[in-house]
Amino acid sequence: MKTGFIGVGNMGGAILRGYAGSAQGKKDQIMIYDRDRERSEAVSRETGGSMTDHVTDLVRASEVIVLGVKPQVMDDVLEEVAKAYKPDKLVISMAAGISIAFIRKYLGSDARIIRIMPNTPALVGEGMIAMCPVEGLSLKQLMGAEAILKSVGKVEEVDESMLDCVIGVSGSSPAYTFMYIEALVKAAVANGMERQQARMFAAQAVLGAAKLVMESPESLEQLRINVCSPGGTTIEAVRKLEQNGFMDDVKEAFQAAVDRSREMTRQKKG
């Protein structure tokens, strides 16, 4: 399917690169538009996709339009998309706070839309992407969308009402994880370890723990208990985290992200 990418910054660019490098991504079937022409040119050279200077040209030529722009500019972009959009074309939007209903105000009540919420690990092919399709999409459109998204990570279909929750649990959570790794690195350096080595130890521990969560049938509580030998080092660390309210802090951070997502959506309903 001819696929056009509007906005190829961090997230849009990551999905484009993953798709262009996959078996399904045919370079001569990819079009690119970004307001930053130098970025368009660079991404075009890197991926082999063809660039255009006009949103309307991209929309006319594409069966799938991937919107990788920030919520603040979505109104302007949708106005341009609407000039050439036809309801047989699929639009994939990743902007936080921009609902399917909002997009349909510009493209029509019969617009074929999939709203997604990716996260930054898509940059290294380990993204977690929530996918919310409207009813009535063809099998070709659904499979085409999945091929694009699976090129940068795992895909899970959810109801649009769950997207605020998705933002808290996976969309924003890499930032919490980076803070956790950063704290470990700083503590290790304070105890005499070289910074780059500390970074490797901490990051690999998180990577391995995540893999264990994905592959083990045991509960999260049991996985934690398995590491905590009585009288050992880990149980002392866990006790200190519990005393300081570690899990409550994480839950409050999650809720803050969810609440902000809901607020952004309300602001765009006007």
Question: What tags apply to this protein structure?
Answer:
ProC C-terminal domain-like fold; alpha/beta; 270 residues; 13% strand; single chain; 2 domains; elongated; Rossmann fold; 8-stranded mixed beta sheet
Report on the structure:
Helix content is about 55%, strand content about 15%. The protein has 12 helices and 8 strands. Helix 7 packs across helix 12. It has about 270 residues and is an alpha/beta fold. The model has no long low-confidence stretch (mean pLDDT about 95).
Order of strands, main sheet, comes to: 3-2-1-4-5-6-7-8
List the domain count as a whole number. Answer: 2
Q: What is the CATH domain class of the largest domain?
A: Alpha Beta
The overall pLDDT average reads: 95
Structural class: alpha/beta
The CATH superfamily title of the largest domain:
NAD(P)-binding Rossmann-like Domain
H-E order: EHEHEHEHEHEEHEHHHHHH
Task: State the separation between the terminal residues, measured CA to CA.
Answer: 35 Å
Largest sheet: 8 strands, mixed
Shape: elongated
Residue share in helix:
55-70%
Low-pLDDT parts are none
Proportion of beta-strand residues: 5-15%
Quaternary structure classification: single chain
**How large, in whole angstroms, is the Cα Rg?**
21 Å
